[in-house]
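Box 3.1 A note on notation
Throughout this textbook, protein chains are presented in two layers. The first layer is the amino acid sequence; the second is a token string describing backbone geometry. Keep the layers aligned when reading.
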Amino acid sequence: MDKVVIIDDEIKVLNAVKRLLRKLPYDFEFYSEPEIALEKIISAGTDVVVVDYRMPGMDGLEFLKKLSEAKVDCIKIVMSGEADIRIVAKAINESGIYKFINKPWDPKELINAINESVDQNHRNIVEKHLTEIGKNEVLGEGSSAHKWLSDKE
């Protein structure tokens, strides 16, 4: 089952998101402390992460940067009540986010963003798999390139 982690320091927001998403067919985890969420994700992984931009201690972009440094491969969504274009640009450029959602969020927009993110994650997995297959076909033992190189030796 696809795993989606939601991080927001506001318990009321987390509870509202839980109610909204409870019928979606994903394995959800909710955290109000980014440090704990980071540890869990690094150890167990996730498919999608939805993180609030402004949180005490560690903001959402710092959180995503730490995920990237730990080589966690997932789809990233940032939520923020600050629609400052500089924040959006920084999130995209530095953290490779897939979506940016304004707070207060529209329920349909949040649901669609999560569904689209899960779909994108599936596409990424298939693409990586096909890339590996292609490398093996082109360069692996028994490939034309491998035979050609062997004949040259």
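The radius of gyration is 19 Å. The chain has six helices and five strands.
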